[in-house]
Known about the structure:
- The protein is an alpha+beta fold.
- Helices cover 52% and strands 18% of the residues.
- The protein contains 4 helices and 2 strands; from the N terminus they run αβαααβ.
- It has helices at residues 8-17, 33-46, 49-56, 62-78, and strands at residues 20-28, 87-94.
- Strands 1-2 form a two-stranded antiparallel sheet.
- The longest helix is centred in the last third of the chain and has 17 residues, at 62-78.
Amino acid sequence: GHIRRYNKNDLRKALESAGLEPLELTYWASLLIPLGILRKIILALSTKDEDTIKNGFKPPGKIAHSLLKLLKNFEVNLFPKLPFGASLFAVGRIK
């Protein structure tokens, strides 16, 4: 449901055009990509678009939240600088 996806180069250019100096650009949530693909397949086979949007805003249960947090901690500690990911984090400062 995202309107725009950035790669590092595009986000760097967007930061610079906004008058910011990019200090750090890092992909993260790489280990969520297989789960995202699986979720997309399941939703495409089983639900209507409006149900997907409605259900997408429900918070996960405690078990799912704990498992996703564990996966995040595993990735951050073992693979801090992967060349791809489900999201891109940027830090910049005013020039």
